[in-house]
């Protein structure tokens, strides 16, 4: 029995999928979240662990996720179910598909709020509302922007409506076309900002802050955050990449695609860091200022730059477009599922999920004004949505898919989809069976406080544990070895 279904609707052109997947990956996560998290968790140590997570956990997980999507040719729920059934496993495994779909939905509900900030700032940039000479002035503008639930809600509602409109139309062409100018445009703009920063102060400090790798300085919370962010920034375990993978033509190489997307995404995040931190240091701002960081530092930096007003408008246009191309990917899984399983038209599916989304996102939006003190354990609704999805649901989903692919399902499926050389396949298996699961589990254990991890001094132990578990696993079920020796 072969489960290979015919795809219903394929990406256009050679670069279609890469553009769409990059559009999903590159977003607020790179330009808004990465800098503020780096600032909060102390700089270089966070960056280093984040890069390690991308390489050892994110890339293998992304390959696995695309393989599931393409093999199953359906929404994440159906794709996981079909691939499991092809290996003679029960429907229960589609639970991971359900969890991803839910995570995508929850992420989108706070993502539209931040995308709303971006639109609000675009409007302020055009209408001259971002004047002021000090960090305090900028903090006041940011505070005022959030204080009024009606205007703040109007911006996030606008983002929701535009997202649903695009998704309802069927997304490929629009996304692909906007990505073609946006990616090069974004790189050029960030480069210009970096070059400017090199000559105007704060740059050396920024480089030291971002790249002085003192791993010992990283807290458990920082470790968990770095792993969660690796999932977030690559759009993993929330249905997006799997749903897009369902439209990937058979002829495309999953490995090559994955590396292209991951490299673009990482470069843009690092460039954003290099463009943003000089302004923070030059103006004596605290890098640990939290989610408002870029909204408080950048307008100040743009004011000091030649042509700053124009560049600022361009910057917020790009940030908003980047946010939209990510937002549409987060709801694609839900919409695909509603059309396949509930027989809805795309439009109807988009608008009905839009309504539910709007309710949840309104709660998230209220965290910045009326609901600022609806907290549980010190976290607002907005914080909880972010925390639960990024730190727990996405890594758990990634863990589940990797273990399924590594141990539970028939290896032919993945050999068929990934089409790697024998050595490369063995390496991929090693990653999904041992390296990424162990990494994820260790970080969870550390975060739960069961034991504390200090990679800086304890890494030989972790390596020993990894080797021991690998050897044990290969004695019990020797897949990797079989691949290696043929
Ligand atoms: N990766 C995007 C960013 O960095 C956000 C995103 C899009 C996302 N789709 C996702 C995050 C799916 C998690 C899951 O901004």
From TrEMBL:
The keyword Membrane applies. Its main location: membrane. One of its GO terms (cellular component) is membrane. The chain crosses the membrane at residues 12-32, 44-63, 96-123, 152-171, 183-203, 223-247, 259-281, 313-338, 350-372, 392-409, 430-453, 459-477. It comes from Chromohalobacter israelensis (strain ATCC BAA-138 / DSM 3043 / CIP 106854 / NCIMB 13768 / 1H11). It is a multi-pass membrane protein. Keywords: Membrane, Symport, Transmembrane, Transmembrane helix, Transport. Belongs to the sodium:neurotransmitter symporter (SNF) (TC 2.A.22) family. The lineage of its organism: Bacteria, Pseudomonadati, Pseudomonadota, Gammaproteobacteria, Oceanospirillales. It is found in: Membrane. It comes from the Bacteria. Coiled coil: none annotated. GO terms for molecular function: symporter activity. This is Transporter.
């Amino acid at each position: 029995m072969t489960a290979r279904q015919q795809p219903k609707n394929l990406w256009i052109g050679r670069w279609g999928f890469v553009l769409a997947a990059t559009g999903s990956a590159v977003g607020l996560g790179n330009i808004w979240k990465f800098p503020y998290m780096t600032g909060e968790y102390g700089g270089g140590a966070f960056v280093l662990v984040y890069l390690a997570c991308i390489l050892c956990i994110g890339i293998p997980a992304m390959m696995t996720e695309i393989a599931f999507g393409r093999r199953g040719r359906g929404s994440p729920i159906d794709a996981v179910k079909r691939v499991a059934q092809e290996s003679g496993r029960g429907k229960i495994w589609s639970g991971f598909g359900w969890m991803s779909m839910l995570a995508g939905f929850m992420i989108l509900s706070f993502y539209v709020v931040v995308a709303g900030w971006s639109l609000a700032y675009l409007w302020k940039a055009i209408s001259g509302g971002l004047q002021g000479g000090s960090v305090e002035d900028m903090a006041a503008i940011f505070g005022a922007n959030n204080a009024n639930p009606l205007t703040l809600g109007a911006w996030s509602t606008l983002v929701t409506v535009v997202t649903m409109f695009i998704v309802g139309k069927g997304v490929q062409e629009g996304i692909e076309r906007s990505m073609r100018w946006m990616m090069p445009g974004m790189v050029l703009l960030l480069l210009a900002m970096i070059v400017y920063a090199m000559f105007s102060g704060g740059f050396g400090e920024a480089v030291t802050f971002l790249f002085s790798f003192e791993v010992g300085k990283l807290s458990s919370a920082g470790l968990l955050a770095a792993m969660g962010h690796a999932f977030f920034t690559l759009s993993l375990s929330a249905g997006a990449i799997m749903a897009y993978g369902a439209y990937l033509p058979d002829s495309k190489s999953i490995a090559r695609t994955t590396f292209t997307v991951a490299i673009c995404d990482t470069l843009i995040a690092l460039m954003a860091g290099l463009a943003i931190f000089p302004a923070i240091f030059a103006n004596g701002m605290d890098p640990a200022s939290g989610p408002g960081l870029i909204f408080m530092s950048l307008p100040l930096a743009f004011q000091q730059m030649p042509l700053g007003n124009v560049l600022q408008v361009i910057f917020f246009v790009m940030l908003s477009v980047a946010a939209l191309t990510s937002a549409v990917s987060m709801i694609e899984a839900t919409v695909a599922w509603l059309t396949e399983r509930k027989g809805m038209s795309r439009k109807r599916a988009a608008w009905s999920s839009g309504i539910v989304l709007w309710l949840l996102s309104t709660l998230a939006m209220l965290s910045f004004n009326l609901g600022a003190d609806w907290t549980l354990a010190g976290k607002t609704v907005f914080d909880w949505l972010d925390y639960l999805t990024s730190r727990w649901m996405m890594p758990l989903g990634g863990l589940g898919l990797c273990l399924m692919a590594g141990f539970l399902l028939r290896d032919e499926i993945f050999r068929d989809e990934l089409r790697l050389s024998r050595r490369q396949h063995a390496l991929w298996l090693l990653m999904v069976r041992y390296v990424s699961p162990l990494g994820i589990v260790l970080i969870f254990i550390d975060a739960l406080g069961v034991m504390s991890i200090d990679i800086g001094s304890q890494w030989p132990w972790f390596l020993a544990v990894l080797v021991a578990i690998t050897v044990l696993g290969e004695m019990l079920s020797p897949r990797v070895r079989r691949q290696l020796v043929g």
